[in-house]
Amino acid sequence: MAVGEMATEQESTRRRGPGRRREASTLRVWVLAFLGVFLLGAGWSLATPYDGQPDELQHVIRAYGVVDGQINAGPANSPVRTAKSLVPEGKACFRWHLDKTGDCQAEPGSVPAEQHIKIHEGSGASGYDPSYYLYVGPVIHLWPNMTGVVLARLLTAAEMSALIASAVAVAWSSRRGRWLLGGIMVGVTPVAASLLGAVNPAGVEIAAALAFWVCVLDLFSPDAPPRKWVAMTAAWSGAVFAVTRGFGFGWMGLAVLVCALTINWAKIKELWASVPVRWAVGIIGAACCLAVAWDMSAGANYPLTANTTSKTSLPQIIIQELWVRIPFYLDGTARQVSYGDIPIPTVVTYVWLAGVGFFIVGGMILGNWRERLQIAAVAVGAIAILAVSDINAVRQGMWFSQGRYALPLLVGAPMLGAAVMGRTGVLTPRVNTQALRCLAVGLLPVHLLVLAVTMVRFERGFPTNGVLAVNPFRGSWTPPAGAELPVILLCLGLLLIGWLMWRGVPEEPQDLSDAPTRRLRTAAV
Q1: pLDDT over 60 at 18, yes or no
Q2: 3-state DSSP call for residue 128?
Q3: In this structure, what are the phi and psi dihedrals at residue 107, rounded to the nearest 5 degrees?
Q4: Where are the alpha helices (DSSP H) in 395-478?
Q5: Segment Disordered: which positions (predicted)?
Q6: 165 closest CA partner among 395, 500, 423
Q7: Confidence of residue 78 (pLDDT cuts 50, 70, 90)
C-alpha cells in the first residue's frame, strides 16, 4: 500500500472512530438512564395502594372500557363498562382522610368472582383520548385485579423512562455541553417521578414534554446541524405529547413558538433541507390533527367555560389567585403527590425551586434579551394559563388547576436557562460538572424522602393528634410486594442516575489528531 493511500485510510478511520465511540457512549447513557428512571417507577409502582395515585381508579376504569370497546364513553363521569373487581368495596375511602390507611379499601380482585362481572361505573376520564389507554388497558383487561394495575403502572414507567432516557441521550451528546442534563433533572420533580408509578396519562405527557423540549432546543441550535436521530426522537415525543392529554398539542405549540424566538431564516432553511426534520414535522402535524379531531368529536370533558355567573367577584378571585393559588401551583409541581393531601415537608418545594431557580437566574444573567424573553414567557405564561382556567372554573363552583397540569410547559424554563448557559461558553466544563454533582447531592435524596412519607401515609396514616409515624416499613397496610422492595428499587434507581450526573463533562482537549496525517502526506509528496 502506498504511503498516500495509508494516509487516506488512516484519515477515514480517524473520522469514523470518534463518531462510533460517541454513538456507543450515547447508547450506553440511554440504557443507564432508562434503567435508573425505570427503577424509580418500579419503586413507586409497588409503594402505593390501588387509587393511591391521583385519579388512578378513574383512569383504570377508562382503560378497561377502551379495550372493551368503549372508545368514546362521553364527558366526565359518564358510565363506563368495567369489571366489578376494579371498583372495590371502600373505594376512595382514604382520599383527603389522612387518618385512614390503605386497608380501608379492599384490594381489587380480592373477590375472584367479581373479575368476571361487568358493571357500569362513572369515570372522570371517560372522554379522554384513548391512545394511552390502548397501551395500558390490555393488561388490566386480562387481569382486572392488583396484578393488572401494577403491570399497567410498570408499562407507564417504561414509556416515561424511554422518553426521559432519550432526552438524557440528546443532552449528553449536545455540542452545548451537558447543562441540559441539569435542566432534565430539575424537570423530573418528585411529583413527576411519582407519576412513573401511576395509571395516569399525566406522567407520560410530562416525560414526552421533557424529551420534546430537549430535541427542539438541540435542532434549533445555531452552531450544530440537525441530527437524524434527534429529529426522529422529536417526532416520537412530539406525537405522544400531542395526543396523550387534552391540551397537549397546545402546550407543544407554545413550546415551539417560544423556541422559535431566537431562530433565523438561515436555520429554518437548514432544518427544512433535512429530510428527517420534514418527516418529523409531518408526523407531529398528523398527531396534532388527530388530537384536535378527537377533542372536537368528544367535546369538553369538563365545562370550564360555561356561561354561569360566578358568586365571587373578579377582583376577589384575582386576590385569591395571587395570595393562595400561585403558591399552591408551585407546591403542586414539586411535593403534592397522590391527591395533594399528604403532608410532604414544605422544604421539598424550597429545595426544588432552588434547583430550578439556578437555571432560570443563570439564563437570565447570561442570555440576550430574546433568551430572557423566552424564559419569562414560559414561566409567566404557564402560571397565567393555570390562573385563567381557575377563574373560569370558579363559575362552576370549583378550583380546578393544579401545578402539575402546567409542568409540560414549565419544564421548558430551566431547559432554556440551561441551553443559554451551555451556549455562551462563559462557564467552563469544570463548572458544569460541579453544578451537576451539586444537583445530584441536593435533589436526588428528596425523591427518597417523598416516597418514604407517602408510604407512611398509606401504611399508618397521619393521626389527628399530631403524633407522626416515621417508619415506612411497618403499618396496618402493606405494599403488594412488601415495604422494603419499593425503597430498595428507588435507591438503586437514584444511584444509577447519580452516577450519570457524577460523570460530569470532559474537558475539551486540544485536537492534535491531524499531526501524524500531515507528516504522512508530506512523506508521500
Answers
A1: no
A2: coil
A3: -75, 135
A4: 407-410, 412-424, 429-460
A5: 1-20
A6: 500
A7: confident
User: Per residue, what are the HEC states of 340-377?
Assistant: CCCCCCCHHHHHHHHHHHHHHHHHHHHCCHHHHHHHHH
The 3-state DSSP class for residue 520 equals helix
- Angle CA 440–352–210, to nearest 5: 80
**Angle at CA of residue 204, ends 422 and 123, nearest 5°:** 150
Three cell numbers, residue 65: 372500557
Model confidence band, residue 467 (pLDDT cutoffs 50, 70, 90): low
Calpha distance 111→109 (Å, rounded): 5
Please determine, for residue 222, whether its predicted confidence score (pLDDT) is greater than 60. Answer: yes
Contact present, 16 and 167 (Cβ < 8 Å): no
Closest by alpha carbon to 198, among 61, 56, 88, 406?
Answer: 56
C-alpha cell at 424: 455562551
Whole-number Å distance between alpha carbons of 436 and 178: 9
Residues sharing a CB contact under 8 Å with residue 97, sequence separation 6 or more, in sequence order? none
d(CA 332, CA 386) in angstroms, rounded, equals 12
pLDDT at residue 513, as a whole number: 35
Distance, CA of 211 to CA of 187 (rounded, Å) = 11
Q: Residue with C-alpha cell 363521569?
A: 77
